[in-house]
Amino acid sequence: MTLLPIHIIAGLVAIASGFVALFAFKGAKLHRKSGTIFVYSMLVLGVTGGVIATLKSQPANVIGGTIAVYFVTTGLLTLRRRDERSRWIEAGTMLVAIAIGFLSLMLGLRVYHSASGNINGVPPAPLFFFGAVAFLAAAGDLRSMVVHGLQGKHRIAKHVWRMCFALFVASGSFFLGQAKVFPKPIRIMPLLAIPALLPLVLLIYWMVRVLFTKWHRRHPHDSFKPVPLRRPA
Questions:
Q1: What sign results for the dihedral spanned by CA atoms 136, 142, 146, 152?
Q2: What is the mean pLDDT of the segment spanning 12-25?
Q3: I need a surface site. Which of 34, 37, 113, 223 has the fewest CB within 10 A?
Q4: End-to-end CA, the chain
């Protein structure tokens, strides 16, 4: 399948650039450049993964690809300057998140009550987890609509947690979902779980640092300032 090499390359680039962006000094050129590469590679990863999963009748992976695209897209839009279209965009992304959450929970329930207890090797627990996270993200979109856009640390927190979770989708799918591609000497689940789950650990770290410390006031980075959705004519 011609999409598979593109999907693999995009996944490797997304994981590498995502970790660079997380550890780079926030607002610096390295952070901005690696973040941009991460967004584009995640979009390619999510779209190609969704198409491949559809052709192979793997609904769980279709959900994974869709949620990856949703999180990087909304994470990026969080940094864009609001205009008259913003509420409509947020309404659309909220509906997408609700749809993802509903489909994930329905599929999880179907798998839970099935004889095999999994679908294409995926147990119900990850589906329930993705469903809950999608509904949480939808609530965030609704809140942003109600208050006419998040500001300050809350806007940064929304950007950070969505990008971190998108990276988790990529790292978890690779290090745990594709563990068979690793040589047997290092095919140790506790070892592979470290890079797979690291984005979630960093997500918690940055959420605490952004929301409960004065980090934002000490570091008013340019990368977190709203930028126009498009250049003025």
A1: positive
A2: 93
A3: 113
A4: 43
CB 27 within 8 A of CB 223: yes
Return the axis-axis angle of helices 152-175 and 3-23, rounded to nearest 10°.
Answer: 130
Ranges of beta strands (E only) in 93-139 are none
Residue with tokens 């999180």: 71
The amino acid that residue 219 corresponds to is H
The 8-class DSSP code of residue 80 comes to B
Q: What phi, psi does 230 have (nearest 5°)?
A: -150, 160
Q: Which amino acid, one-letter code, is at 213?
A: T
Predicted model pTM: 0.88
Let me know: does 42 contact 69? Beta carbons within 8 Å: yes
